[in-house]
Amino acid sequence: MQGVQVANTRHCHLWFSAVIQGYSLAWEKKPWEKKDYTLISPACTLVGCQIGRNCYLATAVMVFQGAVIGEDSRISAGAIVHLKTILPPQTHVGIRHIAVPAEHGPLITADIQAAREQIATADFFGSVFQEQEQEQDTLQAHVMETLLQEVLSWHDEAI
User: Fold this and answer.
1) How far apart are CA 41 and CA 13, in angstroms?
2) Which of 37, 95, 154, 157 is least enclosed by beta carbons within 10 angstroms?
3) How far apart are CA 77 and CA 52, in angstroms?
4) Domains in the chain, CATH or no CATH each
5) pLDDT tier at 25 (50, 70, 90 boundaries)?
6) Minimal CA–CA distance to 55: which of 14, 17, 20?
7) Predicted confidence band at 32 (pLDDT cuts at 50, 70, 90)?
8) d(C-alpha 51, C-alpha 70), whole Å
């Protein structure tokens, strides 16, 4: 679990096949934070995010870089909390819904097109990869090179 710091695991249940990564690529290296009484279900993927106290993340939830899930929140199965999305306390994200940052608070929707339009304003590739390239093939090559460099730098650490 590269770059992960989990404190006080007495009240945190990380189920089998949860993937937790403290940071990714050029993103600011912030540890993943867990507060008391949080449940993270199987197949969840958490990357460079913060999860508040007393949250429930159902199966296959994805939470990306810079996202913050406020305390007492519930993120339903298959939901995505996208890059830099700040969810206030007691937020519910529905089954297979997407939460994305918006000007006046997060947009939580099952409408993929609406989410895509909002995500475009978040500058995902610029934020995560420091990449401004517009040509798809060049962008793909740069992103793949960056990902490969990160993966090749990983190593096992003794527990």
Assistant:
1) 8
2) 157
3) 18
4) 9-122 (2.160.10.10)
5) very low
6) 14
7) low
8) 7
